[in-house]
Design brief:
single chain, 8 helices, about 190 residues, about 50% helix, alpha/beta
Length: about 190
């Protein structure tokens, strides 16, 4: 069974209904069984809306609401791909977590996602609000194990380098040095 996960609180910004639409397209276009686990707190009443829509369009048996889970890493690692349709996020933590555990990501090209994902290299970027884009890229991952493995491996290495303790120390040190160089101490040597 292929598992394609949504990880995030169920809010308007996270676009859970776009995820549901992408799931419907994938079910229609993919010959094998698919499961779409949804993780996160239901903050805006989306779970009941999603389930009603899933029942109406005939895909309810493919959707699983699993709520908020800690730790998240084993759950994300157990999925074949993560779809993140959210918009206007500065930095999607669940995307970083997925990349770190080797789960390929398909994300909306919105907010800071383009800083985390290099299209076709460390994941896929789909047009914001595009269920079709999310579905098509996720299907490409499912259809090609070599592609999925290459993306997952490159993403994992990039995240380890970009978000390591040493990398963060170097960035913070540079910021402090710039601030110290710009600081003007009143009454000091001029």
């Amino acid at each position: 069974r292929n598992w394609l996960v949504f990880f995030g609180n169920l809010t308007v910004q996270k676009r859970p209904m776009i995820f549901l639409s992408a799931a419907a397209k994938m079910i229609k276009d993919h010959p094998g069984p698919l499961c779409f686990p949804v993780f996160g707190d239901d903050r805006d009443g989306f779970q009941s809306k999603m389930m009603a829509e899933a029942q109406q369009i005939g895909i309810a048996e493919h959707i699983r609401f699993l709520g908020f889970r800690v730790p998240v890493e084993p759950w994300i690692a157990g999925c074949d791909a993560m779809m993140a349709p959210q918009i206007n996020e500065a930095h999607g933590r669940s995307i970083v977590e997925a990349m770190l555990v080797g789960t390929p990501v398909v994300v909306s090209d919105s907010g800071g996602h383009g800083e985390l994902v290099e299209h076709g290299i460390t994941g896929f970027l789909a047009a914001a609000e595009s269920a079709t884009g999310l579905a098509d890229h996720a299907l490409a991952i499912l259809a090609n194990d070599d592609l999925a493995a290459k993306i997952a491996n490159r993403a994992k290495e990039m995240i380890k380098q970009k978000f390591s303790v040493a990398s963060n120390q170097a960035i913070m040190s540079e910021i402090y040095q710039q601030l110290a160089g710009e600081a003007h101490i009143p009454g000091g040597d001029e």
